[in-house]
């Protein structure tokens, strides 16, 4: 068996037994038996986190030392001063429909030491592609800043965590990320941008299988027939097709704390109006910032149950939330800032559907803040009540949105408040060089973690 120089053993094999059992019993995605309870759980955890912050503010004389932000995901792990040595704590911090995503929890650490991606069929040990195709759970980390220019789509296996904390990691090029018929994947704190079409060639998807792949769409992240997926604190922009697409019966997904910008069709949830398995799709979209130069689909929903909670939408060009095929859209506690274009003030859009058909769809707005003339056209029972309530929220709710989404996107090194330099130009720029990874002896993992912790904590506290 090929010696894996980049894997650091951190737990006994016996700790894998629950995960292995789950892998052997992997079934097709299915709906959560009570989606309303999941939505209520999101609210409970948000309220608990905000209460902790307020209690802390009262009890502390020096407000500058407070850690809690009111964001339940960040408060779960960032307040640990030793988080870099307890990275897998992150897997316990998800909320919403994707809260059961384990990622590589209880697995080994894999350190990416090689930023190249020259061979999609026989990837080299040390590369990111070599890590994501493995069958066992892995927690993938980066010892240095990296620009990874993919030659083809990066096909993940189940039980993987991509953890970019402590480094400035950019993924660009062909594909980019494909989650197809897998489960339990966490993607955290990486830049994903300038993804282009690729394919019509062989690509490896596991240590024992590679196959011919037709032309890909050029999505930033493509979720296809997968479940228990969590995408958190990523910055996504400038892709050929969608930034995130979830189709073909995918479910159990949380998309949180991300920063989206510079794109047309941002997010697609559901394959088609006629694809019945997407009726069970459940997606939570929470604490994201939909930023500058976005046009539409934040998201665009086909069937399914979509919970849109505590996001900041700023000046879309066409619309923010759209759909067809009778999806259920539960919009709660968001801030919608309309563009100056008087013809694009409406938050919602029923795509290619007559009013006689969509007026019975369950689209509701509760506690949303409407700015600059934005308005949400609700439907289903209590249309007028929901519409008026959305417009009557006090301004302090908008202040809370600022607090909850302040750190959206990549944290620390390479965060959106910092200049990303040459990487902002895209993968085809001649001036972009290949990032050179730093080789790390396995004995230095603990020292590396301590360095990352000390280096990133001051940066994140200033964002």
UniProtKB/TrEMBL annotation:
Essential cofactor(s): Ca(2+)
Annotated Pfam families: Pectate_lyase_4 (PF00544)
Annotated signal sequence range: 1-21
GO molecular function: metal ion binding; pectate lyase activity
Domain Pectate lyase: 145-342
InterPro entries: AmbAllergen, Pec_lyase, Pectin_lyas_fold, Pectin_lyase_fold/virulence, PEL
Pathway membership: Glycan metabolism; pectin degradation; 2-dehydro-3-deoxy-D-gluconate from pectin: step 2/5
Catalytic activity: Eliminative cleavage of (1->4)-alpha-D-galacturonan to give oligosaccharides with 4-deoxy-alpha-D-galact-4-enuronosyl groups at their non-reducing ends
The EC number(s) this enzyme carries: 4.2.2.2
Cofactor binding remark: Binds 1 Ca(2+) ion. Required for its activity.
Keywords from the UniProt entry: Calcium, Lyase, Metal-binding, Signal
Protein family per UniProt: Belongs to the polysaccharide lyase 1 family.
Protein name in the entry: Pectate lyase
Source species: Dipteronia dyeriana
Source taxonomy: Eukaryota, Viridiplantae, Streptophyta, Embryophyta, Tracheophyta
